[in-house]
Amino acid sequence: xxxxxxxxxxxxxxxxxxxxxxxxxxxxxxxxxxxxxxxxxxxxxxxxxxxxxxxxxxxxxxxxxxxxxxxxxxxxxxxxxxxxx
Length: 85
What we know:
Pfam families: DUF4212 (PF13937). The protein is mostly helical and about 80 residues long. The protein has helices at about 5-35, 35-40, 50-80, and strands at about 45, 45-50.
């Protein structure tokens, strides 16, 4: 790959990584700890929403982020023609 293409590829890759990590942090730390008192006024399945995010929701979001990351990384690889077929 050329230098400009390499830089664009890594910029796209790091941009995706930062987005995923920010979402993961906001959901796991924010919703489960920081915003839990505010979220506990809402109930989901009979449990306060802050409790649910701390124990179940963050795991579901993390798994969804894994699939999202894999899909988007495949798209970036195909865009820069570094994919494996």
